[in-house]
Amino acid sequence: MSRRIRWVAAFLLLCFVALVVQLSVIQVAKAHAYANAPGNPRVADVVTNDPRGVIEAADGTVLAESVPAPKGNPFGYKYERVYPQGALYEDVVGYDSPLYGLHGVEATYNKYLEAHDAPIKTIGDLFSNRLETDTVTLTIEPALQQAAAQALGSGSGAVVALDPQTGAVLAMYSSPAANPNPLVSLNPATEHAAYAADIAGNPGGPNFPPLLPMAYRDSFAPGSTFKIVTTSAAYMLTPQYVTKKYPAYSCLPPGSIQGQTTYLCNYAHENCGGDIAQLLPPSCDTGYSLLAQDIGATNLYDEALRFGFDQQPPIDLPHSPYEISQFEPPSFYQHALIFLSFAAIGQKNTSATPLQMAMVAAAIADHGTIMTPHVMAEIRDGQGNVVARYHPTVWKRPDSPAAAAAIGHLMRLVTTQPNGTAYGIFNPADDVAAKTGTAQVGPNNSLTTDWMIAFAPASHPVIAVAVVVPDRPGSGTGAADAGPIANHVINVALGH
Questions:
Q1: DSSP 3-state of 68
Q2: How far is residue 247's CA from residue 263's CA, in Å, rounded to a whole number?
């Protein structure tokens, strides 16, 4: 009998332990998921009956708000979301669609924007069920956002502008841009049609997510803008090659580098050579191809990692694999070192997002430091009290201050020296340091992806910019296609 009692007691004890574990999972481990699950009646009630908080730009311009919904709408909502600025801020703000969910800031800061319990401040609050929404203020400067959109016009491309000292995103715009208002329509037919149209108009094609923000979630061959990373690898990891003189070529003949089977030529077959100070302003491909062989695959890969390649950028927006910039590991080059030369000049398998290249420019501007990029400035509750405020943090330190200063000087020569590839592009009053990029892409290299990265003023930078204009037909260049866009944004930023 006592044996049976012990078995029963042990079984009941196991049941009790299992109950405690299950309650712990529900109350602790999965509490947040259950509390925010779409099937939770309280969540559904908030979605259908309560407004969301305001999203505003740095100057208070309203970018998203809730307004009373038409009565009898198909979803039965009491409020609908509207975006007064239309497509201008969609890259950052995103949308809150009844059918397609949350994107952008609407998703990242949803817990602040949706109606939630107000803090208890008085005895009366204990017996009330007050809900409130918060206001999310962004770092985006409307004048710069509008400047980026105006400069890009109807062409395909993207602009990212950062404050190099804080990481604040001052502008982030992609063209073509999609108006989020039809996507949040309370008419399902309107939503479906808008979604289908956005897929059809997506430069990435049907295999990419709709409304893909090109500025931070699409990557391209960076062309010669990547030479800033290659130059940094020389200064930081192989300084003996900074002053090495490389022979002048217009083209490297086949066989010059292991695995090379065709001519590797400079733009317009220009003849160039010398040390890094002579190679960077004219963007000498032949010289940098030879420099890459001296630096080596491991060092170049390590420096790319130090700049954030092959890693998820920590920006406070929804993430996806598309936003990871790519640089192949050393093993990729061991049987054909010519691909290391291509990588060092931003061609072939190397790819980068506009955000990544803006961070490269910002690193040189901020003494070798990459600050964590962010779009949220602060969040305030319904009474105007600060709920959260962004505090700048360091993400990477790819360069020493001395190396960054030396490279920044060379980037300034790109704009001021007659043989510099960005000579005459920028307003002299802006004191711009820059690097152009022109990547050959498409069938038989029939297209170019054109870049400009820059910061200004060079002596005390307050803005770092990256511009990409992808898949241009013919023989476009970074200077001609991306340069005027970067110039306009910097002009507006500096008030010139």
A1: strand
A2: 16
Report the alpha-carbon distance of residue 207 to residue 295 in Å, rounded. Answer: 37
> What pLDDT is attached to residue 29?
53
Q: State pTM to two decimals.
A: 0.88
The segments of the chain whose pLDDT lies below 70 read 1-4, 6, 8-10, 12, 15, 17-48, 118-130, 199-211
Q: Which long-range contacts (CB under 8 A, 24 or more apart) does 364-367 make?
A: 364/228, 364/399, 364/404, 364/407, 364/408, 364/411, 364/433, 364/455, 365/164, 365/404, 365/408, 365/433, 365/455, 365/461, 365/464, 366/164, 366/165, 366/404, 366/461, 367/399, 367/401, 367/404, 367/405
Residue 331: Cβ-neighbour burial (10 angstroms; 0-12, 13-18, 19+): exposed
Beta 376-380 vs 135-138: how paired, if at all? antiparallel
Q: Which residue, among 113, 101, 98, has the nearest Cα to 56 in the 3D structure? A: 113
Report CA-CA distances (Å) from 439 to 138, 151, 345.
Answer: 33, 21, 9
Query: Distance (Å, rounded) from C-alpha 63 to C-alpha 86?
Result: 8
Cis ω for the linkage preceding 330 (within 30 of 0): no
Tokens of 192: 């479906």
Cβ pair 493, 365 in contact under 8 A: no
Nearest to 279 by CA among 338, 197, 224, 361: 224
Answer for the pair 436, 224: CB distance below 8 angstroms, yes or no: yes
